Amino acid sequence: MRTAVMGAGSWGSVFAMILADAGCDVSVWARSQEIVDEINASHTNTQYCDDMALPASINASTKAAEVLAEAELVVLAIPAQHLRENLEEWKSLIPANAVVASLIKGIELGTTKRMSEVIAEVTGISHERIAVVSGPNLAHEIAAREPAATTVACIDEESARRLQDACTTEYFRPYYTTDVIGVEIAGAVKNVIALANGMAVGLGYGENSQSALMTRGLAEMSRLGVALGANPLTFAGLAGVGDLVATCQSPLSRNRTIGEYLGRGMTIEQAVAKTKTTSEGVKSCQPLFELAQRHEVEMPITEQVVNVVHSALSPELVLTAFMARPARAETGQEAMEHM
Questions:
Q1: Catalytic residue among 113, 190, 276, 283
Q2: What is the pTM of this model?
Q3: Which of 150, 251, 258, 331 could form a Cys-Cys staple with 271, CB 3.0–4.6 A?
Q4: Is 190 a catalytic residue?
């Protein structure tokens, strides 16, 4: 399959490797000529992927038209808040029958739209050709070709299966679903919960506190997703609890890392500058909370993360507010209603 990967950050580069290992003909678009030259000459991208060796078959270019030409699969691997402006430039270049897959785990500021919604709105591409990929996929581990699994989602099962086939390797196993809403909400919310969990780590709290945050974070994720029309079972899978655990627990997670810096007393500006990479949770926490308010969904952890990130309140308030919540049933119908 002729594949265009639009974005040469860590996950975009690693996903290009997966596609090439799966037998696809892969071209990568990067804004930086330096990165393009390195990929083409040395088959590495040291700015984002340390010493990972990319398959020699991958070629790169700064010219979107060259990368997108005759692509059957277009993979979007850029920060959420830059998607709309880039799609405005690329929409006329995307081949008419290509499946467009988003690797982006965020919500758009101002509109509160999911990435698949932004793609459809800007390009006019039908949702039957728009897919998303989300799961416990820490790029550094997959770069070493350690075994991993993910979820690919599209409302059209045939398109989901096409994407699944395109990225199946000996070390990377995708499962498909038609629940795009659930997969996208899970991918966005888990980053916010990882920020909260990182704050707990930075404050010196142990496994009990972190487990409670993750479990109630899963409840927030499920509540919002179901309110938007998602299948509740999605949140028990790879895109839900699987990605949540990986992102909250791994020191490789940029969202957890930023949260940890905040817990240690850094400002949000200092924490973001220290990580030097995009944290989707920092950008998406506000629009996610706005989305929850619009649908009358309670998301207390997300609310407190917004307070820390955007109002410079103490990270300790996240745990204080969390523990001050009214106690509720954890079993039976009442627990299901308040997930």
A1: 190
A2: 0.94
A3: 258
A4: yes
Q: What mean pLDDT is predicted for residues 277-295? A: 92
CA angle 235, 135, 64 (to 5 degrees): 130
Domain with CATH 1.10.1040.10 in the chain: 188-337
Give the DSSP per-residue string, 74-138. Answer: EEE-S-GGGHHHHHHHHGGGS-TT-EEEE----B-TTT--BHHHHHHHHH---GGGEEEEESS--
Residue 327 CB neighbour total at 10 angstroms: 5
- Say which CATH topology domain 2-178 has: Rossmann fold (3.40.50)
What is the pLDDT at residue 332? Answer: 41
Please write the tens of the pLDDT for every residue from 47-101. 999 889 999 999 999 999 999 999 999 999 999 999 999 999 999 999 999 999 9
Contact predicate 38/16, CB 8 Å: no
Give the pairing of strands 59-61 and 73-76. unpaired
CA distance 251 to 269: 20
Signed CA dihedral, 288, 189, 135, 254: sign only: positive
Q: Return the CATH architecture of domain 188-337.
A: Orthogonal Bundle (1.10)
Distance CA 262, CA 146 (A): 30
Band (pLDDT 50/70/90 cuts) for residue 330 is low
Are 38 and 61 contacting, i.e. CB atoms less than 8 angstroms apart?
no
d(CA 219, CA 55): 40
In the chain, residues under CATH classification 3.40.50.720 are: 2-178
